[in-house]
Structure formats: structure tokens, C-alpha cells
Predict the structure of ATP-dependent RecD-like DNA helicase.
Amino acid sequence: MKLANIKFNEEAITLVGVVTHIIHSTRDNRGISAIFQLMVKKSKIVVVAEFGSINSFPIVGEIWHVTGEYKTDLTYGSQFKVEKSVKSLPDKDTPLNVLADYLVFNSIFTGITRHWAKKLIRTFDSNLYNVLENSSVKSLTDNKKLKIPKTLAFNLLDSWRKISSESELNEYFIAHHFPIELVEATRQLLGTEASKLLDKNPYLIYPIMSVKALQRTWKELDSIIRSLYKISKNDPRRAVSFIESKLYSAQNDHGHMALPIDIIEAALKEAKINFDLTSLNEESAEFKTLCLNKSNKTVQILGHQAIEKSINVLLQKRIKTSEHNSTIDMFDVIPTYNTLESLGIHFNHLQKKALEIAFTHMISVIDGASFSGKRVIIQSLVDVLLRDGGNVWLISSSSNDEVTALSRLEGESIYRFISKAPKRNKIGALSDSLIIIENAHSIDTLTFYKLLKKLPLTARLCLVGDHRKLPPLGPGNVFSQLLAGESDAITRLEKCYNFRTNNKLFDLSSSFLSGTISKELNRTPTADLSVLQDICIYESQEKSHEMISNITANIWFEYKSNFDINAQIICTSNLLCELINKQIQLARLNRKKAAKVVVGNRMFFVGDPIIFSKQNTFLGVSSGALSTIHEVFDKSKIVHGRECLLSIVVDEQVIEISKEELECISLSYAITAHKVQNHHYENTMIVLDNFYLISKAWLYTVINATDENLLFIGNRNALSVKMNTSEFSLQRHFGIPITLAGEYD
């Protein structure tokens, strides 16, 4: 192989070639990683670009410049590990062999095979780039040496002109100091006229950016735009973009789908921007991205309003199919009632009502506090339908049931259900079914929209949740919005039953509803680590994460040593969770010769509990899924083209994890309260590390995730104040009410 396309820069090697195959690619909040084949001369080289070394997904047919070094693996041979990679378009300096591969592998060049690429090179040699830039169809077809058909010549030059426009957008971004990794997304969203549209409104680039520090990024972008485009402080385009930054931040930080007008007006005033909000609804407005909701006086991103409107439309379509409904008479519920009564469980009138509505309505909503019998109703629905030949699906990641004698149905996460829905719809598996969603209060607006889009109109939907618990991690709060409306499809369970073996935990949980929290908290004894107490508090005034981490880890080991239990630690912040996880892992396992994987500063041992901190599309695992390290491989295994280092078990399936996918998982000796949602633990340690982040809903959620023994670590007086606040959680603002009534703007 000739080294014409390989350059040495100190110790690093730079390769230039064309992508021929994508082995694996993924994106998360750290960026992009990819494994792909690059054609360099006549050799296909496997390129591994980890997070931070690549800024956009490679696509077959693209030209990439990659800098790094070769690594040899005993399992699958040589790989090229990338330090830096840059996508480029062909120019006058592009080597002929790369240009030929570009014409062959890029799907935009229809009909250009290896045969025609070779003929083009033989005919024009080093002048090929200029020929493609400047030739006409006639000049190509008239070339007697080339002998190219007219249609093929037209396709070749037409495709080349499209490529040239892409090159112009690249140059435009470089000249205006815009992030070059946004070129592809900008081209897809704004089309071939992207440069002209950005000249008209350069702030269009902001919604395309995917960043964490939304307002800081806007300020940096605003500084560049005002300097290059000479835009005044009160320019309407700037004002609209400023409002967008506030709305996107409110969604990202607090889960709002909209903001009240007075909050937006105050923000504009503070920024000294003069802008009339009523102009947002003018039909003549160019680049319309915002809207004003007159009914509830909120300002909203137009796309967010569209999602809310679409959800309402999909709900109404489902409700209008009510003539397709069955009645409860089709199902025999008496055997199930008899089974429950034999266990000492008697359905009250509200529980019977909830059961009947779930059978007879296309959409039903059941709201109830912990231990109000929601899961008994779910299991009763499942029992009746499975026994009488009904079609039922359960969306739930919870594994603990209040009643164990009824028929079982394995639940799955809502993310996995949505991903499998298209295949199930093809075989009619979801038609005429009842789909039960447990813990529906944790479903955000976008996820609910995706779910409705996937369901056939003949499928019934039963949402079961507790509005008192923490709201979804994502934006919006569909469950609470539905409860705010009036509908006969909504059942509010009122009575709580003590299914717990720990009466003190039941009393503490019930005190949230009865308003006697102070009384129950005063009864809570100080922790005595020599005995296992139902509820206790280890009082501490410490505020530093280092000291709290030491205290918590030491108590965890005391519990492990004295009572042989692995208590689940629950904190408010991810930072404290990481400190505690590292302390426990190192003290527990590092001294032993257990199998482990070390990647950077991250370490995983066999038996470590882990949680998916972010969803992984390739693996089909949702955020919050719990597991343990099943096996650490002596030698890495190649599974689906990925270099896998270990395996875990999720939903009784063994899943191999690659080095890149390790970034999706975290240790879970300690986790945050939001990740507790949908799970139950026998023993918990509740760390009261940051009372600013602790709400009544936070406390209610973690207490009701505990089945046996609970230990608080922190300040008793501050805990009492938080428990006695009147509201469970702060309201999330929305634009269009999501309702079963069908009346909205």
C-alpha cells in the first residue's frame, strides 16, 4: 500500500479517506462516539472515535481526516484510535483516489460505479476536480474518450452542484465563527438556502444547538452575532432569540413547557430589551418560532405548543371510538374478588369503580397515594383479562407487588414498549388491548406523545399514578394535567391500606396525607447502629460533601457488617452519589482480587450494582434501569461489531456492554431520588445533604420507596420544616391544557 494519504505529525498519523461502513455510533450528553470503516487507498481501516474526538456522525460516502495511532487487538486485529477527526468536502487538493472513492460510495452520485470512477480519472487525471466544478453536460457527453451517457452525466454534475452548496455552508460557518459540528443539522433543517436564511436571521442557529448551559451559550452566541451582523440591542430577532433561551432553560432546568407572560416581561426588562409580546401572534411575522397563549397568558415555543395540541387531538380521537368499547359484563370479575377476599382484601366502591372504568373507557386515569390499592387494581385487571382471553400489556419497571397470589404479567419500561410497538402493530398485537401504565406520574409530555402515536385507536389506555410523587425528569406533567380536568374517566382513590409489615413506615407515609407529620417525626428515635430500627435519624450538622460521604459510607458498612443488608442510599445530588459510590466500591471490592474493568477513572467489579444514567437506543435500555455487573470478560468480545468488556442482566436478558456504552451506566450504591421512582427497596438510607433541593414530594417519594427499614442522615429540624410545607411540588407551566374534556385553545 502506498502512503500517499498518510501523513506523520510528530507521533500521530493522519489518514484521509472515505467512509464505507458504519459499525456502531451513539450520542449522549457528552457528544458522539463512532466506529466505522475508512477506505484509505485500497485498504479498509477500522476507525474508533470515542467521545470528544469526533463532532458529528459519520455517514457512508463522506470524506474524513482522522489523526491518531494504530492499536492492535488480539481478538479482531488492527484498529485506528482517533485523537481528532474532521469531516470535509472535496476540494482541489483532495487526492484522486479519495475523490474516486467519494464518487463511488456517496449515495448522492446515482449510477457512478467503480468503472465510471476509473474512467473519469483516466480521462481527466489531476484535472478531474476542475472538470466537475466547471463542465457542462454537453462537454462531458462530447468527450469521445469518456463516452458517458447523457443521463449519467446530468446526474453526476447535478449531484456535484449540490455538494458545492454544502461546501459553501461549511465556509459560511467558519467565516462566522459558528460551531462547525452544526453544519449538517443546519442543512437538514434550513435546506439549501441555509446561508441566505442565516443572513436574514442569524439567531436561527440557536435552537439547533444542543447544550447544557443554554443561557450562557446564548450570551456567547449573541456577542458573536451582534458583532458580525451589526444587530441592535432591541432588534426583534434578538428579542425572540432571548425569549427562546429563557424558555429552553426553563424546560431543561425545571420541566416547564411554557412560561407566564409576567416572567418573560420581567426577564426582558432586566436585559433592557424593548419588545411587544403581542407581536408574537402576528401571522406576518417572519421566522415564527414563538406563540402567545391567551387563555392562560403564557409564552411558548411553537414546537412545544404543537406537541400539546397533538396530544389533545390524539386523546380525542381515542375517546371518539367509544362505540367500540366493551362493557365489564364481558369479563367475569367475581373469581378475582373472591381471591382477594380470601386474602383479607375487600374492594371499596372507588376501587370497583376504577376497575370498571378501565374495562369500559378508552382512556382511564387512577390516582391514589401509596398503599391505596393501585397495584391491587392493576393485578386484578391483569388477572381477569389473562383468565378470560383478553389482550393486556403492562408498562412498569417496578418488581414488588402488594398481592402475590394473582396472575403475573411481566412488565416492561415505557421506552422499550414504544420501541417495540411498530413490530407489534404489524401483527396486530396491540389492537383491542388494554395497556396499563404503572407510575404514570413519571411520564413526561414528549414520551406520552410518542406513546399515543404508536398505539392503535382500538387500544385502551389505563394510567395509574400518584400526583404527590416527584414529577417526570423530562418536561411537562401529563398526569397532573389530566387530573386537573373533570372527567368520569378519572378515579381518585381516597383510603390507604397497610400492606407494610412496618407499621411505623405506614404511619409516617400516611402522615403526609393527614397533616400529622410533625407528630410522627417527633417519634422518630435517634439512630442506634447496634440494632436494626424501623425508622431512625442519624443527626448531623455537616454540610460538606466529603464529610457527609464519609459518614454515609461508614454507616452503610455498619449495616452490612451488623445485619448483612445492602441498604440503598438516596441523595439529592449526583456529585455526592459519585463520592459515596467510589468510597463504598473501593473499600468493599478493591482489596479483593475480584474481576474488574478500568476505563479512565471509572471502575466496575463483578457484583457492583449499576443504574443506566441515560437511555441507550442501541441496547434498548431506558434511563433509570437497574442491574448488576454479571461478568467481566478476561478478553474483550466482539458482539455486533462492538468491543465488549463486560455483561449485565436487564429484564432477565444478558446484555454485553462496550467501552463506549460504559458511559451510560453508573454505580448505584447511592442514587438520586428521581432514579428511585418506580422502584422499591427493603432498606434505605436517606441523605439530607441539600435541603434546597428537597421538597415534600421528594421526601414522600423516597419514604414510599422503602418497605422495611429507613434511616435519615441529616438535620432533624430542617427535615421537619420541609415535611410540613403545604405543597407537594412546584407547578409546571404549560401552554395548552392536556385534558380528556376536549376543550382547549
